[in-house]
Task: structure prediction
Amino acid sequence: MVGAQEPGANVNSTAWDSQPTLSRGEDTLYFASDRLGGFGLSDIWFTARQKNGQWGKAQNLGPVVNTRESEVSPFYHPMYNVLYFSSRGNY
Result:
């Protein structure tokens, strides 16, 4: 999912995992997925890079961001330290 580095089983699933974006320090990876355990059709998830360089277990960003509908296209803006995304459920 991320360039030449395979994030591994903590991040990748058998579901649709796509649209990755990295934080400014490249220590947090945000992505869209329709994996089980989400709030809706597709959600925004994240994982943090551990001290050993491996990615931690993917976690859902929660109900403030994710709805019963689709949240996709996360984009982390490094200058403003803001995560933008598209939503069919947040108005």
